[in-house]
Amino acid sequence: MMERNESRKYLQHWLNNSNRPLLIVGAAYSGKTFFAKSLENEPQLAAIHYCTKIDPESLETGTILRNIAWQLVNRFPNLVIPKLASVTFLAHQNSALHHFLIKPLQSLPIPKVLSFILIDGIQKEIIPLINQLTKSLPSWLKLVITSRTLHDNELKNFDRFVVLNIDENPNELIDFIREKLPQIDSDCVFECCQGSWFYISQYSRALNANLLTLPSTSRSSNDDDLFTLSSHRCNFIPNGVSALLAAIECELPTHLNLYLQLITASRRPPTRQRLIAAIVLTANRPTNLIESDLHECEPILECTDPLILNGAWRERFISDNECEEAHSGELHYLDRIRILREFGADMIELKCPVFDYMTTDLLVKAGAVILNQRQQKHDFVFACTSGDWTSVMNLLDAVSIDELRSGLIAASSRGHADICKLILQADPHAANYVDSQQWNALRSAACNNHDNVVDLLIQNGVEVDECGEGGRTALRAAAWSGHECVVQRLLKCNANVDKQDAEGRTALMAAAFMDHANIVSILLADGASPNIMDNYGSTALHLALSSGAQTSDHNETVAMLIKGGANLNLEDMNGRNCLHIAAYHGDQNLPTIIDFIQNIDAQDHNGRTSLMLASSQGHLIVCQQLIEHGADTDAIDEFGRTALIIAAISGFLDVCEMLVSFGADEGHKDNDGAVALHYAVAHSDLQLCKSLITSTTVQATDTRGVHPLLIAGQRSSVPIVEELLKVGAPIHLQSHDGLSPLRAAAISRNEKVLKYLLEYLRKNGEKLELDELDLDGVPLIHTLLVLRDRSMVTMLLEYGASATVRDSHGRSCAHIVAQLNDLKLAAIVRKYGAEFEARDEDGRTPLMFAVWSSNYKICHYMLETIGVAPNVADYQGATALNIAANNGQRDIVMLLLRFGAEPSICDNLGRCASDVAQLAGHDHIRQILKSANGSADSSGFGSLPSSPIQQSNSKFFLQQRNIGSLKSSNNSHGITTKCNTLKISH
């Protein structure tokens, strides 16, 4: 999935610098949900909820809060969420939100890292909930929402929000176009898509499913019209979402409207089986035909079972199924009360108002009854959570065992000892109940620092180490939360201080990770072992050092663990001891830790030493401390890399300079044969490169023959290239794949570097060698033509590249532009002497190439502007007219005839153009040719003309690769281009 990097940067800046919530707005189908989904793996995303009209429940308060809450529980395992009934969220939204989510969040220790909740696609129904969340969430948990573009009066509801208009960055949309539709001009698609990301995605899916074809390059307008590129370039791309859907609809089954109407009419997305059953009843079609139709419709479905329509498809057909709400002001619904009664409104009992008060009032008038307070069944768990002793007392005898036990956990988490006592009197066994989230009453009370409830539960005989399958005890919960009194109370009751949970974690580990030094001290004094390992091989000290904290509490915690007997040489599952962990996180306590380490150069399972780990994160002071204590600067890991190479990979200048000053070897090669400079030149940091440049390193080649100047040509700036050349970098040295610095810069479109290299060679009187072929027999100018880079092509021609240079198949620049159908490139190469009558090794002219590719524009240009001969035959005797007849290209046949193409010319097998059309099954072309020829068919027999595709084993590759590189291919269309890719594995 493509990342919206600019939007992500804005989001990160907002998260770190603003205390206000964030509203992301954009037009319909502008990629808001796409962006939201791209954030799902963001480390700081705590919870995400998608609001969608296809699932009405997703807009209900209870659904939203429950979904967010369960995600938060997974992120913060010590979060105690009460099980509230759905009616509670409807009847007591403010109070339910407070007790269900806000109070539990406030009970947590403040995390060390900021987090955020994202709600995508908000609707007006949930605006009150959004405003409540905005006011209530703790400062460390921020809120992000997305919405379609809002009017000024609607924005007033979000005056507290920072607003990000996602439509204001067109570069992200252009990148998406290039990723999804690389075969079509991005500017043209950008113009036609009208800002819709759905358009791009649906267009791509339609092309892949062959519902649509690539935009035709044949001209459909009157031949006498004057052709201009700008006015016709987008003629064959659907203009806007509606046009795209209409074009796709023509290729879908005739019963499409019925299928889509049935899908959109369903309250929830229907399963495939249910939809088929409905279609059988509605349309009386056989099941096998319906299955076939649904398979053809898959490119417009977001999900195939249940069936969910992609974006605009649902809105396109939903209008046919719209119905007015009963309280609508439409005149023809004035008898709405009678209609509602006929449908049974008088049999409805409402526990609370529904939807809105207008609807509720209308239902009551139609006979519905709102139960009064005494008739309603209260939410027992909510009463326990909110401390409503009276309601609990009244409901105690009527609730189920499960409600009773859930109520005890809820009351324990809020410290309502009187309610806990009532429940324990009613069901003493409730105290030992463990719910699906591994909470029992004791752990719930301990985690939330309610020592009075802890005492009550223990007095009632609760087992102090009671826990569920997760193994998380009350002691571990209290230690994680930092509640000293509760920890001491549990220890006095003989809680097992070293009991491990399902992950092997102890209470000491929990306290150490949270830097609760006072709790660590208490646990150690009670006999806790500091050297127990969890399932990942980590000890309490490993976990403390991995928190990345730089506080006095953290330093005190580390000191306490060391004093308490922690073994700093124990290794985790990655082979890392405490020094490795401290070095990686840049811990302030590293000098103290070093004193306890047996081998400062100990390597983990990847061969990394502490110095390497510190250099990988740019921790300058830590690196210096390690070296001063004797760390080996030239130790190598399993990839043959030193600390210097690792620092260069990440671009840490200060670390590289420091390592070099301490004698690190700049010329050391890793297992790929690369020195640190190979990696440094990729960062465009001149000072970093200067610190690593020597007469040896500039000449160093890796196992593929790549040297630093080659990489710099692709990725770096002119000053770095200049610095490399000053020290003697080999400007003519090619890689094993035949890639030179000049070619690398050109293919990477690094125009400034290319110009500098050309001037450098000219200034030094050296041969430019711009027409050399690569290992696949392709000259550089051909490669740049395929990339459609006009400025680079022009520059190369200005510096002396030949416009007549041939590839290994005898094709010239004119052949290339003919197949590309690019008039501007054609004009450029013509200006510099390209031969448009040139023949390739099979005798084909550029005109023939253009005809084979159905490129009307370039055919017209060559015939009218350049005046190429239309009757030239290739070595099989086929003319351009024969080829057009074979392909059934009416427009091009008419064009060739207009410019003097002779229909009677026969190929080597004696076939004229009309014979070829007949063999290919194009009767309409045959009739045109007979009329033009005025004679009967000839009697030629044999096969049809063969295309460049059949004659050549190489491919005309029109796709740009990363870092400007093209791979060679030997199995398809016409012209081969190739260059080499420089890769460095970090």
UniProtKB/TrEMBL annotation:
It holds the Pfam family Ank. Keywords: ANK repeat, Repeat. Transmembrane segments: none annotated. The keyword Zinc does not apply. Residues 10-148 form the Nephrocystin 3-like N-terminal domain. ANK repeats lie at residues 470-502, 503-535, 536-573, 606-638, 639-671, 704-736, 876-908. This is Bm6066. The lineage of its organism: Eukaryota, Metazoa, Ecdysozoa, Nematoda, Chromadorea.
